[in-house]
Amino acid sequence: MNPASTNLPLANLLALFAGLALAASPHTERLPWWVNSWLALFFALRVWISMGPRPLPHRAWLVVLAIGGAIGVFLTHRTIFGRDAGVTLLVLLMSLKLLEIKVMRDIFVLVYLAYFLALTNFFYSQTMPTAALMLITVLAISASLVSFNDTSRRLAESLRTAGILLLQASPVMLLLFFLFPRVPGPLWGLPQDAFAGVTGLSDSMTPGSLSNLSQSDAIAFRAKFTGNPPPRRNLYWRGPVFWDFDGKTWRAGFSRFNNNYQAEVRGEPYDYEMTLEPHNRNWLFALDIPSRIPPQSRMTLDYQLLSLPPVRARSRYLLRSYPAYRAGAGAEARDLAVALRLPRDGNPRARALAGQWRASAGTGPDSNAAVVRQAIEFFRDSRFEYTLTPPLLGENTVDEFVFDTKRGFCEHFSSAFAFMMRAANVPARIVTGYQGGDLNPVDGYMEIRQAEAHAWSEVWSGNDGWVRVDPTALAMPLRVDSGLAAAVPRNSALPLLMRTDAEWMRALRFNWNAMANKWNQWVLGYNFDRQREMLSLFGVQSPDWRALSMMLFWSTAAVIGLTALWLFGRWRRDDPVQRAWRDFCRKLARAGLERAPSEGPVDFGARAGRELPKRAGIIGTIVALYVELRYGRNAAPPQTRQLRQLVRNFRP
Question: S-S: 354 plus which of 69, 424, 426, 455, CB 3.0-4.6 Å?
Fold first, then answer.
């Protein structure tokens, strides 16, 4: 056992522990339970040790705990590298460091660990609440560092000093933000597990998969239209397209690129800007049907936009879409053959009904359209129920949904419709994406949430090309006319802020989202392109990293230099005590008593009293008053006026 340190005040230690707790608190929901227990235990143990003359654990025990913790991290994450494992290991090491604090050097190490732990919170979230909490955390940690360097300070004084230090550092912080060289993409070298928590649409669709997203209030993307936005029923945001069906799950079949844009567009287009949240996939979303392809992206034959690199950072791109179009790509014989494939067995009742539609439609040139019309009438008249909690289905998913339960979410409707079209020899495919969106009246952006994930069908109709048919809208028109909240029963488990009957909550959500969008656009969205745009306003065109580094260096040097000059001038101008002392020294210098640079005020006053014995009393009074005002803690304005008056009347 090592003796506990007695020269570290308990109040200062508790202030440091509060800063450490603030830095670690956002991680507690992500850390394994045993790590949270470890952290709480060691915090409590260190406080208990500091409250009395109790010994610290021996270093050998700390080594054993460190090795055991590293093994535990490896067994939990199957690695000790990466974002999640690295943060877990950092928390463990920080908690162990609590148990060996004996001298100021240990305090400094722990403070630096706390600063770095606060930084790691931005690996998971970069929202305004996270930034505000980390600012408070840095203030608390800095205040504890100030208090350890001056143990006579009260906590309020240490907080004030730390706040002043942060304010003084803000100009350099702004320069670093605007001028530090940006690179395209997310943080350098972030491991793959940094994107493990990103959710959204999937590369496959099984009945029940999209209904899970209806519980998420998270923003999928935002759109800002140049003019008036389309009506809500036309807001179909196109995403992954599925061709292959194995009886339960739809998957993407092929993604040949559409090198020659094949779509006849008509009418007036919609121009808009998209701000897409990172989702770690290559999908870009656009209104049906896009005619402009963003940089670093391609379009497939089924009109899906794909980003060449995965979308791992918030992306902004401009688009133009036409609401009236004829989609003729993907109409080769091999494409249509893929759009007709079905498993050999399964869903006999749905196959039989589709066969009846085909038999009544015949084989003429308009037979496919006749089959589609019969299917539309069937879905309109069958009294299907749209629900977020559909019942589980067995082997014959289409038969059970269409003829038995009649309750489902959008993927049930689109899957059943596409299956029956293929069974009737009509090429069909599934399109997933989002339908709808709420226009935020505060900032004019349309917000599309994960809860608005949707699936619909497309059928090949000869002269009309690929035609969208939304069987969900056929059975429940409110889904596309008024949104998800209006289409489901009132007792459905929707996100709280998406409910339409709480207007004050909608107003609160709109204002908060507008603030968050500004934060995303101007702070988090300040990327490589935005930096170049900003610098071009100052005449700096296409700077490379060397030019940016030199600009940053000289700008920082200028700010620090100007700040130092300002502080020095303020000190000379606004310190009446020091000004009075300089006047006193000048008067003595004219009498032949010049103060040496290494001579302190007490020694100089004693020498002056010996040289001028008739003035020794007044010299001693001036020196004592100056020392009290300059170095004491109980100085008051009347004493400052007294010193200035004494110096003014002093005659050597």
Answer: 424
